[in-house]
Write a structure and sequence with these properties.
- 2 copies of one chain form a homodimer.
- By secondary structure, chain A is an all-alpha fold.
- Chain A has a single domain, classed as Orthogonal Bundle (Farnesyl Diphosphate Synthase), CATH 1.10.600.
- Chain A has 16 helices and 2 strands.
- In chain A, strand 1 and strand 2 form a beta hairpin.
- In chain A, helix 1 crosses helix 4, helix 4 packs parallel to helix 7 and helix 12 packs across helix 15.
- Chain A is globular, with a radius of gyration of 20 Å.
Chain lengths: ~350, ~350
């Protein structure tokens, strides 16, 4: 695939990248213990419980696309980014499996979460298997050590972000111990931004990028990740469950300290909000109040800031022809749903 | 430390290696998110829940010792093996954290298991944090790519072995679907042998060993691991809980298909055994019958075979002066409890 032949509309671009990566991803998953391979295949939407083939919609495949486009940004063929794409998709799936256990989320992409379908213990182990497979995939490429360093740094961030996200749920809504929007930003960057940044940078490194270019792509991916998390937070409160596939008000019931919540709590007009947030039955009232005091608007404005920064990084860096445009297409697709 | 200065008695040798490794291990753990660092420190016996310092006995530190001795076997200073030692101790602790969740084991080293003390979700995440830290530790050494390849292969084996161990519990005691001793051996090698072999080989690689020497040390460690697992199985059934720190009959109640069970089931005189094994209250009767029909003897004989193979591999390979003796000292210590 050359840059110029790549389709430019986002869905086609994502499908194109997914098709490029799929054989290697399937080959990697096929090397797992059959039980682990089934849980992985279920997660990717390739099979049902029991192993019967199916084609339920999996993830959007944004991370694998960023890895392929990262390689192209460095002037290489998109195929050079395939091991990076496989590794980040495996890490993403590992983190979904384990996060659903930690968050008690019983549903993922309109199907039972892996821990619900297969049990908690097997889901923990399947996550571990995907994690190990991701590391193995990168360790055998020619730039293995550098690639594994990038991935393990992203993994450390991922864990750090998830730890903060879990700890935030136990912190109060008001007073000196409340979660600040700065803490939220650091959490979102670690939990969501690090792996998107890693996907871009890792693909670029496998495509021959120098430290500078890999660094810029990493930062662009991180800002994109924060913006995506903000949009996801907005959808988690005000989105249509039929579209998002997540139960309405789920984040509120889990006491997630998302940006819209934090921004709304900062408003003097939101004095009744802490009480509403502690009453699961009043989630809709809470959502209305948060919208009225500007929580939704503030979150979307913050998302726009990070999208703009990512855009600037991608347009002001000399990337291979067509690659910046395609990266921007993915960016618009990922955060454009509400912006 | 030179080979000749090393103490030769096993406890002193293990303490010596642990002291050599501890500063780097503590430094690595100190880089984790504070919450994750506390769970890691609790696992290592450095602190109580809440973080108050303590010095409860941690593990024996066999894996870190093998890594240090592996480096010395390659003719290097033991210190060259420290990153390998840190990585294998982190991986071992990660696997204990996750295995205790999967097996429902509430106690570890006479204290509540991490998932009991901190909750299942946090324990899953702490395991992930240790896993990522192990990879990160190796990725930055000069032989990073080769080291990470060895570690990720051991991790894949670890997961495969644990998957089989879990699946074996659901398989019948008799008939064509019963677990065979050959399947057991492959499971024990993957679950226990792979990381011991990796510890030796990884230390050797960091000490400058060639593929041949690393391969021999890996194989010796794998046989040692199988022997250790066999002895552990025997202790799990007939050991004194006051010494083993594990509840009496725990493995039997969990329907673990350990070698003594499989060997006893092969005896025509054990016709009553399947029924006893399905009755948790009759674990003592089952243990007595298994001993009478030779299950215990067969397991220990099998352990001796693997110990002998490991011994032959270590003595017939030209290793640096003193290193083979020290490796044999650790071997005798690890499996000698019952042999």
């Amino acid at each position: 695939m050359t840059a110029l032949q790549a389709p430019s509309a986002a869905p086609e671009l994502l499908v194109h990248c997914a098709e490029l990566v799929r054989p290697s991803l399937r080959e990697a998953v096929g090397r797992l213990h059959p039980w682990m391979a089934e849980m992985a295949a279920y997660s990717f939407g390739w099979c049902e419980v029991g192993g019967a083939p199916t084609a339920t919609p999996g993830g959007k495949g944004v991370r694998q696309a960023l890895a392929v486009l990262g390689a192209r940004a460095a002037g290489a063929d998109g195929r050079a980014g395939i091991p990076a794409a496989v590794a980040v998709e495996l890490v993403h799936t590992f983190s979904l499996l384990h996060d659903d256990i930690m968050d008690g989320d019983a549903t993922r992409r309109r199907r039972p979460a892996v821990w619900k379908a297969y049990g908690t213990g097997p889901a923990v182990l399947a996550g571990d298997a995907l994690f190990a497979l991701a590391v193995e995939t990168l360790a055998v490429v020619p730039q293995g050590a550098r690639a594994v360093r990038l991935l393990s740094a992203a993994l450390a961030d991922l864990v750090r972000g998830q730890a903060d996200d879990l700890l935030f749920t136990g912190r109060p809504c008001t007073g000196p111990d409340r979660v600040t929007v700065e803490e939220y930003r650091a959490m979102a960057e670690a939990k969501t931004g690090a792996l998107l940044g890693c996907a871009c940078a890792l693909g670029a490194v496998l495509g021959g990028a120098d430290e500078d270019m890999a660094g810029v792509l990493d930062r662009a991916g991180r800002h994109l990740g924060i913006a995506f998390q903000l949009v996801d937070d907005v959808l988690g409160i005000w989105g249509d469950p039929a579209v998002t596939g997540k139960p309405a008000g789920g984040d509120l019931r889990e006491h997630k300290k998302t940006y819209p919540v934090l921004a709304a709590l900062d408003s003097p007009a939101a004095r009744a909000l802490p009480e509403l947030l502690h009453s699961p039955a009043r989630a809709q009232e809470a959502a209305k109040l948060m919208e009225a005091v500007g929580g939704r608007t503030a979150a979307l404005a913050e998302a726009r800031t990070h999208t703009a920064t990512a855009r600037t990084l991608l347009t002001q860096t000399p990337l291979a022809a067509g690659a910046a445009e395609d990266l921007l297409t993915v960016l618009d697709f990922l955060v454009g749903r509400e912006l």
